[in-house]
Amino acid sequence: MSLLADLGSGILRRLPPETAHALTLRALTAGLGVPASQPGTDYDGLAVRLPVSGLDLPNPVGLAAGFDKNAEVFDAMLRFGFGFVECGTVTPNPQAGNPRPRLFRLPDDSAVINRMGFNNAGLADFTTRLSRHQPGAGVVGANVGANKDSRDRIADYCEGLMAVWGQADYITLNISSPNTPGLRGLQDRAALEDLLGRCGEAARAMASRSGARPVFLKVAPDIDETAISEIAEVALAAPWLHGLIVSNTTLSRPDSLASRHASETGGLSGAPLMEISTEILAGFAQAVDGRLDLIGAGGIASGDDVRAKLAAGAQAVQLYSALVFRGPRLVRQILSDLSSSPRSGG
To answer: Catalytic site residue 177?
Structure first.
């Protein structure tokens, strides 16, 4: 069994989470355990076109941002069966992120808590790597964010949007990480209008030079019905914005958590996020009424979880935390399950 195939158990599970992740990336970069072909295209009936953006996916199961922060292993992850891979979050300038330890496994809860803080090597490094992506060799997105110490965070988003425009198949504006102080304030109506107004100018300029690109906004699950309505209204008023990714990690802590790291600060992901994020997804589906594409994220670990997201209104989904416990073979298991029974929703 290769190091990568053992991602969800054994050797890597005995290491600190961030060390295990770094070794996994190193193994992937070296090609260890990476399938020779891209199995995500081998399942009948799973191809999907997102109706607003027109993004064509060989299957609806994507890899969420956070795994491949610096666009190092997107080709390798596509070969495990993902219908699309989202790299990042990347910020204009390199930053170290928050102090370690900042990543915690919650095995009793099939969950993860992270307070990484947008640690990444910066846009220059990211775009150099992303430029190796060949058109038609799988769908690769870029997730952009703002530096912690930025004097103008909206300018950071505009810079990121423009830098990756010609290289990524789609772009995500991540305003929902709980680990950069004040970042989620960009979801407030006035701040969001300012963000989408300025980014819209950048997007229209880039589209006139290099052609259109689908752009998504990634939102948090820790919002109420009023926030859902306001975010949807502002997003719908930006015709260059094609969809929402629902959702990022949560600051909430369900009473059911049993693992010893349950009280760590940061964003909670994995199984406990499934119900929370799916309820928020359904709220956005009602609010946008088919006028924006929806990608469901949070807690997915099975074909049934994917079907639940689709039934709630998503056209595609993303996962990440489940790989920590189940390994990359989970992707093929989910695709096999989906291909053997009808999908619903979306």
So the answer is: yes
